[in-house]
Amino acid sequence: MGKMLGAVRCVVARWRQGLRPVAWAMPLALALALAQSLVALPVLAQPAGGDAAPALREVQLPAGVVTRGEPLPDGVQRLPVPAAARAEPLVLRLLDVQLRVGAEAAQTTQFFDVALQANASAMLGQLGEYEIPLLPAFQRLRLHAVRVLRGERVIDHMADLQLRYLQPPRGNDAAPPVDTGQVNVMLLVPDVRVGDTLSLAFSIQGTNPVFGERFFMFLPWDLPSPVVHRRVLLQHPAARSIAWQALGDGPVQGLPAPQLSERDGWRQLSFEQRDVAAVPVEPAVPADHVPRRMLQFSEYRQWSEVAQWALDLFSPPAQGSEEFDALVRRFAALPDPAARVDAALRWVQGEIRYYALSLGENSHRPQPPAVVLHRRFGDCKDKTLLLARLLQALGIPAVPVLVSTQTPALPGRVLPSPGLLDHVVLRVTLPDGDLVLDPTRPAQPVPSAWRATLPAATLGLAVAAGTQAPQALPPTRDAQAALMQIDEQFTVPALAPEGWLLTRITLHGLRAEFMRMVWGMAAPAQRQQIAVGMYERRYPGLTFDGEPELADDAAHNRVTIEARFRVPQLIRQVGGHWVFEFFPTVLQGEVHLPPSLQRTQPVQVMDHPLLLRQQIQVQWPQAVAVMEDPRTRRQETALYEAKATRSFRGNRFAFEFELRSRTGALPPSGLPTLMQDLDRLMGLIDGRVAVDPAEVRRQGVAEASRMAAAPPGTPAAEGAAATAARRTEIEERIARIDAALAGPLLKGADRGEALCLKASALRQLGRDVQAMPVSAEAVALAPDRPDVWDCRGKVLIHVGQFALAEQALSRALALGSDSPFDVQYWRGMARYYQGRFQDAADDFAAAARTQDGSDSLYPSLWRIWSLQRAGTALPADLLALAREAPQGEWPRPALALALGELTPEAIWQQVERLSGDERTLARVEAWFYLGQYHLQRGDVAAARRAFEQCRAHGVTFYIEHFAAGIELARLPTGP
């Protein structure tokens, strides 16, 4: 969403990184890191934004942790290095991984045989500075062979090889401190040249004791570079049952069928493939998509066994603590369970700082609460266990839940194991339902029930007896958690470039939580940058009028940033018109297009669920008088549903936009369609408003009132003032048509079309008697023109000849009218006033969807009245439309009135909130709608008064004006 939320996203990214103690999913993390090192890619990812990676610190390791020249481990079966037949810059000629699982966990050995060839000078550093990640607390690295293959020569570098031990940084600006004990062993190989192959054989022995005797591992099969010969070989005692599974969502799925053999009580499983293509991971791949094939092994048979393993870790011996007991007494004094949960959560979040000391077993085993309280720091598992014990002591059920923040739904697809579970949250049961709390997040003044939770697709494994499988987490209770809304009010005080902007940006859920935090940390200048970031490029030179302010509704986890700007170039003149251009600010930065549309993997295009809303209002000078009725245009795509409503009544332009995600990701084949959809979305938005000089009043309100021969302040005077510019424009049009008709050029059908235009203009001025013969002459001259029959039909409706009007309009449709939806709208009225209400309703249903793809609410109103008079139940689509936004932009409230779900008083309050010409025009419509409302309820007197008020304004080119006259003529006389 542009710069304003850029700061929020930065903090969100940092917080999300803080959720992941690196060692929690160490079997998978090490496997991926080691796979990267095997193709000589950097083990540590670059921070977002292209900043340089933090420097690694060189350390010393105890003797015996890393050795060289060791004999090969038992059971190793080496493969020959295949010929170098590929020319890519970096090629793995051989990648052989042999896993030997002994009778005990400590006897597990991982053997790697790697032959890496550099065919470009840019890749020489990948051979000469090779890194192997190691956890010295429980692992030992044995170097068996380090050789360079140069043509027919084999150069042994075991003796002159230099080793450096580099410790990754424990934290930086992008992530909180995490100490995993990992060391990157760097092999400095001398004298490597283009075309050389680095041949390595090394083994890593030892497993984290926290996992006990169970074996599990993830191994990537596909890599960023091609592999000439790839093998994974698993050896284990036949008495141990180790299952395997292939994962992968790419075009090539599955793995080569394994070869199974048994000998001397050992079982061997061998996966082998030649010429494995490189599989780069493209940008913005969805979290749960597995772009490369992976091989998973697991000795866990059921998820219940994983849950029991975690339960043992999260059940440390009870340790007394005076501070713990004091906290329990403090929270117990609060009035209800929800208040106690809120207080305990905020205390743990705010008083226990985040620091992950994830060494050895502490990568997964939490520290006892008494230790955490004493230290005043801990990671996700430490803080979660502390909060769980506090709540349990208060009698509130609380269960830790293991989740995967990197792949939220993937645990449902893999074999049971702890390997993907990289974070811990807490499920709390209150009388009104379950909540998910995250003690790792910053402390904020938000009720627990309204706090943002993990993505909706997240599966969690409860650390509790009886857990059978990962389950979906309880959804957030905040119905608006996915909503971001922006309201912009522009003011154009005069027909000159300068104007003003008042903007309100409202954030909910996670966005609100982090904007609250960012705002609290920001200096005044930084707050200004947050507020101005999304506007400064669109409106160069804009300046603040006062300081931006943040209103915090913590009870509903909602914040609103309000700012006011002076905009020096808000409107501009183009071809004699005054033009205002806009774009829904709420869309900025929300659709993430990949760098290239040519890709093989799906792409995460937007957050999901996501709801974006925007309102734009432009108050033009009082002299502007435009009559553009509200129209809603909709778009439905595979990715989102969008709608845009715009109107320009009097001197107020209004635009409403909404986009609701249907999914967040698209397959590669969906990207070309997405680009077409986004082009259509820009057309739906149509971010340009032009004021024609003809739409600017040439006389004031008093002059318009005098011309209407009506006392100032009366409905007739108000109507005359609101429509003065339109009437002047229509009269000038009639004068131009008469001048053309008086000349010799217009003949036949051309003359008929000109007469049609004149008849339409006369009708709009209420001069129906004059329009009748003009329209008849037009039909006689151009009987094959659909627009002429359209014109004739509308004049006939105005004079009450409904059967003839229906025939004329049907003829216009048969001849291929360019505006069939408008013709059906008018034919629906002709049928309505013939008492053929079902036929009328069908026409109005067709007219509600206009030719340009927009929805008009006015035909829907007539459709409701038609079905009500026909005694037919309203269909679901019409009910949904009428109930969509009863408090929305006019005339939406009128639909709710027609259903009886808004009162006349409520409707009138909506109208009176408007101002100027817009209010006058809305009053004309509202009086007619109230007349229909009273007719439906049998109150003839009230209906008559309403229709009379509608007519009193004299807005002759409004359908409601002539329709009110028809209704009055049909009402019985009397009180």
Automatic annotation (TrEMBL):
SUPFAM superfamilies: Cysteine proteinases, TPR-like. It comes from the Bacteria. This is DUF3857 domain-containing protein. It comes from Pseudaquabacterium inlustre. It holds the Pfam family Transglut_core. Residues 372-441 form the Transglutaminase-like domain. InterPro entries: DUF3857, Papain-like_cys_pep_sf, TPR-like_helical_dom_sf, TPR_rpt, Transglutaminase-like.
